[in-house]
Amino acid sequence: MSKSGLLRVLACVCVVTSVNLQSIAVCPHIIRLKNEWRQHNVAVLRGLDKVTGRVSTFKVMLGNVAYFGTFKIRVDTCQDLPPTLPPESAAFLHIEDQLPDEETHDVFNGWMFASSVSLHAVEHSVYSVWLMSCRSDFIDD
């Protein structure tokens, strides 16, 4: 049996055993309880200007808007897992491209995960944006 076949079987076993409370111990990387995620007020994002090679790190408060190049970025929620679990941050982002003298169009609208940048990547010819982490405050460090 191939590795991918074995992983599918293990995933099915985890899903089948998810009725059990013991399934959390059996498959901790697949099954997450809703109350394990911790809500934060600030998303830490990183942006890349592909033309200049400039990388910028910036913070966005929930519900506020940040600008990176021609991107208008809004964060609806930013959450992470507690330190006792494998590190993961997730944010729900709305990214629009606002070119001068043109209509705004959506570039990205959905969940972005810090550990899986390529899973939900922003596809744009000039800019790239990804989630770094979530924080509870806006303090610079």
UniProtKB/TrEMBL annotation:
Pfam families: DUF2155 (PF09923)
Name of the protein in its database record: Cellulase-like protein
Alphabetical list of InterPro entries matching this protein: DUF2155
Source organism per UniProt: Candidatus Endolissoclinum faulkneri L5
Domain of life: Bacteria
